[in-house]
Design brief:
The protein is α/β, with parallel strands linked by helices and 297 residues long. It has one domain (5-295): Rossmann fold (3-Layer(aba) Sandwich). The chain has eleven helices and eight strands. It has helices at residues 43-49, 77-91, 103-114, 130-138, 142-146, 149-154, 158-175, 185-195, 200-210, 279-282, 284-295, and strands spanning 5-11, 14-21, 28-32, 54-58, 95-101, 119-125, 241-246, 267-272. It has an eight-stranded mixed β-sheet with strand order 1-2-4-3-5-6-7-8, sandwiched between helices. The longest helix has 18 residues, at 158-175. It is globular and about 50 Å long. The two termini are 26 Å apart.
């Protein structure tokens, strides 16, 4: 099994803890985690892909032992994308692929919009492009109903609620109608330690507080003139793009990527019938094989 190494780097004026695996001379894969995971969420992929690639998985700002700047304004999408660009270029001039899951997908998309020159390909696992996601959130349909937790996480009381009883409510967010058999034992202990780092929970929640995404109440729609205008021309995915999607996801509905093909120069979608939002942990061998096959051409 390849050795996974831990290191701290300076990038974009902050300190980032990164997990790395593989030969640094090989093509780079930058792996961006979502909420409420951290760099360790990519360990299965580091183990399976680092024979051919140099894999880098950072704790993004606000998470675990990376820097946690104060204030919601420090967690806007532009700053998160600049973090990703700086981390990437710290290790290599460009990446064979940028890979994102959940919130990490949002950062990967933002990086792609701003700096498509930094990557050969974009790979997203159960994550949403902002344009179709905002459309789905605004309709008041199934995606809006599934995303009501966003306002809960934006609340000033969220830290107290989620940290109570050894983060039991935060752990429950993982498990809403999904297979969580992978989060137990030593792995759960490591997640609890990451969530308990000083300032980490506020940093993690500030991602939700900073996003301009608007969530309609179930059964109600948000009028178009009340939604921030997103310019499709500025949100185009120019590099070849692979979307890997676990169909049993209860947090992100299929409507979250409806119309994605219209925003991409070259889109491939691979669906998994027997996986949900946590597809990386549930089917790591199959996911790694799909990624390896996609990167081979």
């Amino acid at each position: 099994m390849p050795q996974i190494q831990s290191q701290f780097i300076e990038a974009n004026g902050l300190s980032f803890h990164c997990l790395t695996a593989g030969d640094p001379s090989r093509p780079l894969l930058l792996m961006l985690h979502g909420f409420p995971e951290y760099s360790s969420g990519w360990e299965e992929m580091l183990e399976r892909l680092s024979d051919d690639y140099f894999c880098v998985a950072p704790d993004q700002r606000g998470y675990n032992t990376s820097s946690k700047p104060e204030g919601v304004i420090e967690y806007t999408g532009g700053k998160l994308a600049r973090d990703a660009a700086a981390i990437l270029t710290h290790f290599a001039p460009h990446a064979r692929a940028v890979i994102g899951h959940d919130w990490g997908a949002s950062v990967a998309y933002a990086l792609t919009f701003a700096r498509p020159d930094l990557m050969d390909k974009l790979i997203i696992l159960n994550g949403a492009h902002p344009l179709p996601f905002q459309r789905a959130l605004a309709t008041g349909g199934p995606q809006a109903e599934a995303s009501q937790y966003i306002d809960y996480l934006r609340s000033p009381k969220a830290e107290a609620r989620l940290s109570a009883d050894d983060f039991s409510k935060l752990a429950a967010l993982f498990a809403d109608g999904m297979d969580m058999s992978w989060l137990s034992g030593r792995r759960l202990e490591k997640y609890l330690d990451a969530w308990g780092q000083p300032g980490a929970l506020t940093g993690m929640l500030n991602w939700y507080r900073a996003t301009p995404m608007q969530v309609a109440k179930p059964g109600q729609s948000i009028p178009p003139d009340e939604i921030k205008v997103l310019d499709p021309a500025k949100l185009r995915v120019k590099p070849p793009h692979l979307l890997i999607w676990g169909k049993n996801d209860t947090a992100l509905k299929m409507s979250a990527h409806e119309g994605l093909g219209d925003l991409c120069d070259d889109l491939t979608i691979r669906y998994f019938d027997d996986a949900d939002h946590w597809i990386i942990h549930q089917q790591p061998d199959a996911v790694a094989a799909v990624i390896r096959d996609y990167l081979s051409v």
